[in-house]
Design brief:
By secondary structure, this protein is of the alpha/beta class. The chain has helices spanning 2-18, 41-53, 69-80, 117-126, 181-193, 204-218, and strands at residues 22-28, 59-63, 88-95, 97-98, 101-102, 115-116, 131-138, 159-163, 201-203, 226-228, 236-239. The strands form three sheets. A six-stranded mixed sheet has the order 2-1-3-7-8-10, with helices on both faces. A three-stranded antiparallel sheet has the order 4-5-6. Helix 2 links the parallel strand 1 and strand 2 (59-63). Helix 2 (41-53) packs parallel to helix 5 (181-193).
Length: 241
């Protein structure tokens, strides 16, 4: 009996030790200090944070005037440094975007205080996590794939980027809906809507197909999400087992 109990304890410890943790930072900014306002980004960030809180306790949510450049950077560093090999780190952003980056609350003229992909990627690179993901619901977010020499992401990056629109497109939002088109389908897909083979694992390929088809349809072909990075289509983004 004691031997069986010992083996059961060892097995339980092994299972716990092998369980991958997920560390998330969600940012949403509707009203900015110096640039035009939006409608739904804060609701978007809250929706994605709420969804991830059903999967992990490691979720930081930053919205509105609190989402300054320095606050976002600090949250990313503090959260992602906790991750170990095998873990996930996720950054979700909803708000204004610009060529090669995102606009924090204190974004100024000439992109002063802009949150560049290079800054974000350096934090991802320093993390020991095996799985690194960026979701962005921002106008012209597809430009992150281009940018200039100072902002363009490394093409060998191990970070998966799932962006709400092409570089020449706006990310559509309407007061008739709770969330922007991209975030609405992203949340629905991650909650299980994209699980086409019903194995309780959401892969990159499944999520892209689900979100892309949904957004293209609801936007009447005006918005096309893009996924980019060095990853396998079967890369598991969320495991509900």
């Amino acid at each position: 009996m004691k031997i069986r109990l010992l083996f059961a304890t060892i097995f339980s410890c092994m299972v716990l030790a092998s369980h991958a943790e997920t560390y998330v930072v969600c940012v949403g900014i509707a009203k900015y200090q110096s640039i035009g306002s939006l409608l739904l980004p804060e609701k978007d960030a809250k929706s994605i944070a709420k969804m991830y809180k059903t999967h992990t306790n490691n979720v930081i949510l930053i919205t509105g005037k609190y989402a300054t450049h320095d606050t976002i950077i600090k949250a990313l560093k503090d959260q992602f440094k906790k991750a170990k090999k095998g873990d996930y780190v996720v950054f979700y952003f909803s708000g204004h975007g610009y060529m090669g980056g995102f606009c924090p609350y204190d974004m100024g003229k000439l992109n002063i205080n802009g949150l560049t992909f290079k800054e974000i990627y350096s934090i991802f690179r320093d993390s020991h996590a095996s799985h690194k993901i960026i979701y962005a619901d921002a106008c012209y977010s597809g430009s992150l794939r281009k940018g200039n020499k100072a902002t363009k992401p490394d093409q060998t990056s191990d970070v998966l980027l799932f962006l709400s629109s092409r570089s020449n497109e706006s990310s559509i939002e309407t007061p008739k809906l709770k969330n922007g088109f991209f975030t609405a389908y992203l949340e629905r897909g991650l909650r299980g809507g994209a699980d086409s083979n019903k194995d309780k694992k959401i892969t990159a390929n499944e999520l892209f197909d689900f979100v892309s088809k949904g957004v293209i349809k609801v936007s009447n072909g005006r918005q096309h999400p893009v996924m980019w990075g060095k990853f396998d289509n079967n890369f598991v983004l969320l495991d509900w087992k």
